[in-house]
Specification:
The chain is of the alpha/beta class. The protein has helices at 45-52, 75-81, 98-106, 127-136, 152-165, 182-195, 208-214, 232-235, 239-246, 249-257; strands spanning 5-16, 19-25, 28-30, 34-38, 60-65, 68-69, 83-86, 170-174, 200-204, 217-222, 225-230. A 6-stranded mixed sheet has the order 7-8-9-4-10-11, with helices on both faces.
Length: 258
């Protein structure tokens, strides 16, 4: 595992009218790892993601990607650097086919950008790569189905395929297993593991069994601050983390007896 840092934040702060949502976060994501950002509701995880992808401007602090300061860059510039985010709510085009969804993401490789009015035959050259990506995420048999007809877990797989089409160096996955049944969670977890074999993944995830099974490194946030960092075995035993999730040990015992 390379120890090289692909993404780093230094003293990252985000305030909203006096409320500090992210407070002095120093994050280091190693290249080639799966790094999970976890914490109870309202901990600042999604705000942190929004800062990293520049959907929000930091109040203070720095963001570095591949050693370059990207704090002042716009979302499109960051995406061109290879930082690509998959959203919490599935963001596919529902009435386009599965294959067409991936093809739209691939259009940038043709230099045609997102020109929906391009003649279709100019896009057919992308179909082989589309099918390759769909095969990778287990959707080859669904290529000509409208995206709206996919089961929920498969929609997330399609979203991962469209993210992969943009050839990311760093994939940001926002709650990839949210709202899924056990079977879908297993499928998407294995898919993330497969995707991460030759790239870096930073994910916000609530499901602790997912985090425990695939994350190399975990950062725990509470009230916008980092309260713990390390591998799952270490973080899951940290008293501050346990209290953040379940209240104090005394409260947990009282709850059990009450």
């Amino acid at each position: 595992m390379s120890s090289e840092i692909i993404l780093e934040t230094r003293g990252l702060v985000k305030e909203f009218k006096g409320f500090v949502a992210v407070n002095d976060v120093n994050l280091k994501v190693q290249r080639g790892t799966i790094h999970a950002l976890i914490g109870p509701n309202g901990a600042g995880k999604t705000t942190c993601f929004n800062l990293l992808t520049k959907f929000l401007e930091p109040t203070r602090g720095q963001i570095l990607f591949d050693g370059q300061d990207i704090t002042a860059e716009k979302p499109a510039q960051i995406a061109r650097r290879g930082v690509v985010r998959s959203f919490q709510i599935s963001s596919t085009f529902p009435h386009m086919s599965v294959l067409e969804n991936v093809r739209v993401a691939l259009q940038q490789t043709l230099g045609t950008s997102f020109h929906f009015w391009k003649p279709e035959h100019t896009l057919n050259q992308l179909n082989d790569r589309c099918m390759e990506l769909l095969g990778f995420v287990g959707l080859a048999d669904f290529a000509h189905l409208e995206a709206v007809g996919l089961p929920y877990g498969r929609k997330r797989a399609l979203e991962i395929a469209t993210t992969l089409a943009m050839d990311p160096k760093l994939m940001l996955l926002d709650e990839p297993t949210q709202g899924m049944g056990h079977e879908d969670v297993d499928m998407v977890t294995q898919l993330i593991k497969k995707v991460a074999a030759n790239r870096t993944v930073l994910m916000v995830e609530h499901n602790m069994s997912v985090v425990g099974s695939i994350a190399d490194q975990i950062t725990v946030l509470q009230f916008g601050q980092v309260i713990a960092e390390g591998p799952y075995a270490e973080v899951s035993r940290n008293p501050q983390v346990l209290e953040a999730y379940m209240g104090s040990a005394d409260e947990a015992l009282q709850g059990a007896h009450g």
